[in-house]
Automatic annotation (TrEMBL), chain A:
Residues 1-20 are annotated as: Disordered. It comes from Natronocalculus amylovorans. PROSITE patterns: ABC_TM1 (PS50928). Residues 101-319 form the ABC transmembrane type-1 domain. It comes from the Archaea. Belongs to the binding-protein-dependent transport system permease family. CysTW subfamily. Coiled coil: none annotated. Keywords: Cell membrane, Membrane, Phosphate transport, Transmembrane, Transmembrane helix, Transport. Pfam families: BPD_transp_1. This is Phosphate transport system permease protein. CDD domains: TM_PBP2. GO terms for molecular function: phosphate transmembrane transporter activity. Part of the binding-protein-dependent transport system for phosphate; probably responsible for the translocation of the substrate across the membrane. It is found in: Cell membrane; Membrane.
UniProtKB/TrEMBL annotation, chain B:
Residues 83-288 form the ABC transmembrane type-1 domain. Belongs to the binding-protein-dependent transport system permease family. CysTW subfamily. This is Phosphate transport system permease protein PstA. Pfam families: BPD_transp_1. One of its GO terms (biological process) is phosphate ion transmembrane transport. GO terms for cellular component: plasma membrane. PANTHER family: PHOSPHATE TRANSPORT SYSTEM PERMEASE PROTEIN PSTA, PHOSPHATE TRANSPORT SYSTEM PERMEASE PROTEIN PSTA-RELATED. It comes from the Archaea. It is found in: Cell membrane. The gene is pstA.
């Protein structure tokens, strides 16, 4: 809006008008202050995570060093990023993040195998095939799925998916008796809760494909199947990818569902019925104990939190890039 | 076209397979779209089933559930303290997030020039919306609970939740402001009003239903969040919080506390708690939809 009402010619600008202009400038400054708080939030997240993670690696927070403390490396980055045992609170501590990073990545990949095919198919059905009345019922139903708190999904995993759905399969087919927690149930619930993200954003992208492209293909004798797979999906591909990245980013940061579904046992395993621990589950387990300030457990929270934050940050930046490409395509 | 279609140009193309392929594909993607619906139904049935079993087999009394605080003994445990704490959390979250969120939205929609700083604000906002909720908990833990030294109090939880839902409130408010037609603004300018007068007297009242709808939906998200509260240090046995400076356990953290117990009695208490939580969420969403429908046609 460039219609800023400056004191125009012919209008006698009395003191009232001046006061109004002053109020306008003051409001603008206050509102800018509100917007600045959002930037401040990001900066504080960076600062708090890096500051406290420093005390994990170097034995002192950056702010403590500034007032006279000293750095003394206690945990090397090599141990942190390549060690295969994670037990900072153990009597013989080990600081390799790989087992819990594996947990997070395994859940994320497993969830993607559920949410990506089903979400994309749902989007295609909603955008290309469904009648108006089906669409008006299916879309709100999926939105309900997105609105359910993650703790409820975790509860669903331990009270239904794990004992009722997976238990008998593991028992009869593989002869494994399943415990209270399993990696597979974590993958399934996180997959279910990210379906609405994939489907709604992919559908928006598919709806943005102009009808001219579809009609062109029909004119060449293509069937609906051909049009869906060979015209609509390729044309909407960057929006569809953006939705995948958003779902993956959400799965990485997902906490309560995986904590309740997948458990607290940090190990690298290929057995989908075994208990594992994700980075977020580790953070919850440490918050559950009395992790006091200054202990290595407390400091490790921030080291793990920093890794988690950086992983989602990369995903968010990628998502931003894809979205911008998608917006440019047909406008 | 006067040629005999039986022996036509495309006679050698097997259209039968094309038809089957299309039908199979439609069946496949329809089944996939029903997967989410079936899972939602299973989830709700599972919760309803635990609720029923909890009331009948474990003799959980609903009266006791609403009038007693948490306890280490399942037969004495109630939900009252958690409900009160969640309502208080929501109240403070609303106060903290609403004004700053709305202010940011107004700045970005009405004032912000198209400069690098504005683009930075927008990009930052998109990033904040994707930060995992547990990280907001860490921020409140380090900055408030141990930084300022407030301890694990209710208001620290509110700050974490407020920062978490702020991007949602900002984006929905921006959409509501964008929906106000420019002709309304120009009419106001034509009477000699300043930009701020126009926003205050004309734009905000017109956009308010949309803004409130978005805020209620954001608060519904906040009330179901568990991880930030756990990081801040919520209690595992709920008790009545006396004011915002007291320790607390909200509904979701109490549900987690119960669900993580090995005892079946506690797990069924968690099921009853989930029914209460979902009913409150349903009510909030209902109010939001009612507001949207009631004011949709105006302006």
């Amino acid at each position: 809006m460039s219609t800023e009402t400056d004191q125009g010619p012919g209008i006698t600008s009395g003191t009232g008008a001046k006061a109004d202009q002053k109020a306008n400038r003051r409001a603008r400054r206050v509102l800018f202050g509100c917007a600045a708080i959002t930037v401040l939030t990001t900066l504080s997240i960076f600062f708090v995570l890096i500051d406290n993670a420093a005390s994990y690696f170097f034995g002192a927070r950056i702010t403590e060093v500034l007032v006279g403390g000293s750095f003394e490396q206690t945990i090397t980055f090599t141990e942190f990023f390549t060690g295969t045992r994670w037990a900072p609170d153990h009597s013989t501590p080990a600081h390799g993040i790989l087992p819990i990073a594996f947990g997070t990545i395994a859940i994320t990949v497993g969830a993607a195998f559920v949410s990506i095919p089903i979400g994309t198919a749902t989007a295609l059905y909603l955008s290309e095939y469904s009648s108006k009345s089906v669409r008006s019922k299916l879309k709100p139903t999926l939105e309900v799925l997105a609105g359910i708190p993650t703790i409820v999904y975790g509860y669903f995993a331990i009270s239904f998916i794990n004992p009722v759905m997976l238990g008998p399969i593991a028992e009869s087919l593989f002869g494994i008796s399943i415990g209270r927690y399993s990696m597979l149930s974590g993958m399934i619930v996180v997959g279910i809760m990210t379906i609405p993200m994939v489907s709604s954003i992919s559908e928006d992208a598919m709806q943005a494909v102009p009808d001219d492209l579809r009609n062109g293909a029909y004119a060449l004798g293509a069937t609906k199947f051909d049009v869906s797979l060979n015209v609509v999906i390729p044309a909407a591909v960057s929006g569809i990818f953006a939705s995948y990245i958003l779902a993956v980013s959400r799965a990485i940061g997902e906490t309560m569902a995986v904590t309740l579904a997948a458990g607290f046992n940090a190990n690298i395993t290929a057995n989908p019925f075994s208990e594992i621990m994700t980075m977020t589950a580790y953070m919850v387990s440490m918050a559950r104990g009395t992790s006091a300030v200054g202990t290595v457990e407390y400091q490790s929270l921030f080291a793990v939190g920093l890794v988690l934050f950086l992983m989602t940050l990369v995903m968010n930046l990628m998502n931003d890039w894809f979205k911008r490409r998608f917006q440019e395509e047909y406008r | 076209m006067s040629t005999d279609t039986d022996e036509g140009l495309f006679g050698d193309i097997d259209l039968g397979w094309e038809h089957t392929k299309n039908k199979l594909f439609l069946g496949l993607i329809f089944a996939a779209s029903m997967f989410g619906v079936v899972m939602l139904a299973l989830l709700l049935l599972d919760v309803a089933h635990t609720f029923y079993v909890g009331l009948t087999e474990f003799n959980i009394s609903l009266v006791q559930f609403f009038t007693v605080d948490g306890s280490r003994r399942p037969e004495l445990a109630g939900f009252r303290g958690a409900i009160i704490a969640s309502v208080m959390l929501m109240l403070f979250t609303a106060i903290l997030a609403f004004f700053i969120g709305l202010g940011t939205a107004v700045y970005l929609e009405e004032y912000a020039p198209d400069t690098r700083i504005t683009r930075l604000l927008e990009a930052n906002l998109a990033n904040l919306a994707g930060v995992p909720s547990i990280v907001y908990g860490l921020l409140a833990l380090a900055a408030l609970v141990n930084g300022i030294g407030t301890g694990p109090i209710l208001i620290a939880g509110s700050v974490a939740l407020a920062l978490l839902v702020m991007p949602i409130i900002i984006v929905s408010s921006q959409e509501a402001l964008r929906a106000v037609p420019d002709s309304v603004r120009n009419g106001s300018y034509a009477t000699g009003a300043t930009k701020w007068q126009t926003i205050k007297e004309v734009v905000l009242p017109a956009a308010m239903p949309g803004i409130l709808t978005g805020t209620i939906l954001a608060l519904a998200r906040a009330i179901g969040e568990t991880a930030p509260l756990l990081m801040v240090g919520a209690l595992f046995t709920n008790r009545m919080p006396f004011g915002p400076l007291d320790r607390f356990s909200g509904m979701p953290t109490q549900i987690y506390g119960w669900a993580a117990e090995p005892s079946q009695h506690f797990i069924h208490l968690a099921g009853v708690g989930i029914v209460v939580l979902l009913s409150i969420l349903l009510t909030m969403n209902g109010v939001a939809i009612y507001l949207r429908n009631k004011y949709e046609t105006e302006v």
